[in-house]
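ugh ok fine here u go
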Amino acid sequence: MPGATARPKPTACIALADGTLFYGQGFGGTGEAVAELCFNTAMTGYQEIMTDPSYAGQVVTFTFPHIGNVGVNDEDDEAAEPAAAGMVVKWDLTEPSNWRAAGRLGDWLAKRGKIGVAGVDTRRLTRAIRQQGAPHVAIAHDPEGRFDVAALVARARAWSGLVGLDLAKDVTCAQSYRWDEMRWAWPEGYSRREGPGHRVVAIDYGAKRNILRCLASAGCEVTVLPATAMADDVLALDPQGVFLSNGPGDPAATGAGHHGANHPVKDLETGKVEITSMNHGFTVDAQTLPAGVVETHVSLFDGSNCGIRVDGRPVFSVQYHPEASPGPQDSYYLFQRFAAAMAARR
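structure:
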């Protein structure tokens, strides 16, 4: 057709286990990766998502079309290295336009060997995820556009998936350490907590740095222990509180999950609705809670469980990321509630 622009040769391929293929333009690292495919509805925070240990073993499809527009920096990593296997976006990466940007997302991914795929119909891909429930995929980036499609589909089909995997042991810290950095605040950025505080042991099953910052900002003296820590290791530190972090892996294949940064959750005990960030492939079944365990939070999307507590004891949990900031600070009260529970028992 006269005047038509020729489509560039694909340099990336996404192969689903059912044989469905998507082609696009690769960026970041080259090579192949096999993983579970999920999607995330966040408009920004892609650097935090890629370095969130909860995304270990997953390729993230970003439903927001413009990714890359705030660039990357040295402050927003949630872990030392990206945990996600790769990322998929609709458009070519946007040039960074943010005062905190210190580099480009594509360069950041290339340095860390993580594959990105652009130019994909992410709506169609998201529908496939919704229909199949986080399908297994193989992704490939070859600047020459050479793909063994049959081999990629076979890799996706042969992958065992996340069910039954103990990924926490792969993303946890190697040894214990102290943490005193607090949440970022204008204009000083990150500051350090000083003085005495609540002695808290945080078990790292894939803890994001901002979880630890939120604890420090709530007045906690935080000691982080690896996921392999035993009860005696915890008690030896004489803690006033114990915090179990989020993280990747299969707790027992308990149900379907949620991924995104705009999930409304209702606190059943206060009536408050908060906008939360979620990334879990498994959920607690509220119909099977034992006696003495009370449901405290529910999703306003589908009514699934989002929080529980033990009646009469200072023990509670939520099934989302209270340290994330989609609200932007809707869920920070949970850290204050934790600190208040320790103060009440001193």
